[in-house]
Write a structure and sequence with these properties.
Elements lengths: L2 E5 L2 E3 L5 E8 L8 E6 L5 E7 L5 E3 L7 E6 L4 E6 L8 E7 L7 E2 L3 E5 L2
Parallel strand pairs: 2-11
Antiparallel strand pairs: 1-3, 3-8, 4-5, 4-9, 5-6, 7-8, 9-10, 9-11
């Protein structure tokens, strides 16, 4: 049974950091292309970052330097480290089984709210 469970969201002040986790079951994160996407209130889904099966990472240009995607093969978990958060980063964040884009198998998201 394939499952993706995102966690680690919450309320954070501008300039703060969060690390999102995506616990995966039913397939191996270490040899699968994975993606983080987000959806802000009233907006469409937005691609954030991807990691290929070989570990090559890509991140949206405007987020590069603040957001970092990674994975822990032993824990079969995908991560998104988010630093220097701004209110514009407020969104529901989802992990997705895909090499990019905003479509693919994904589970429940985790809410990130950046506010003072």
């Amino acid at each position: 049974d394939v499952q993706l469970q995102a966690s680690g969201g919450g309320l954070v002040q501008p300039g703060g950091s969060l690390r999102l986790s995506c616990a995966v079951s039913g397939f191996t994160v270490g040899n699968t292309a994975m993606t983080w996407i987000r959806q802000a209130p009233g907006k469409g889904r937005e691609w954030v970052s991807s990691i290929s099966s070989t570990g090559v990472t890509r991140t949206m240009n405007s987020l590069r330097g603040r957001f970092t995607i990674s994975r822990d093969n032993a824990k079969n978990t995908l991560y998104l480290q988010m630093n220097n958060l701004t209110p514009e980063d407020t969104a529901m964040y989802y992990c997705q089984k895909s090499s990019g884009g905003t479509t693919g198998l994904r589970g429940q998201g985790t809410q990130v709210t950046v506010s003072s």
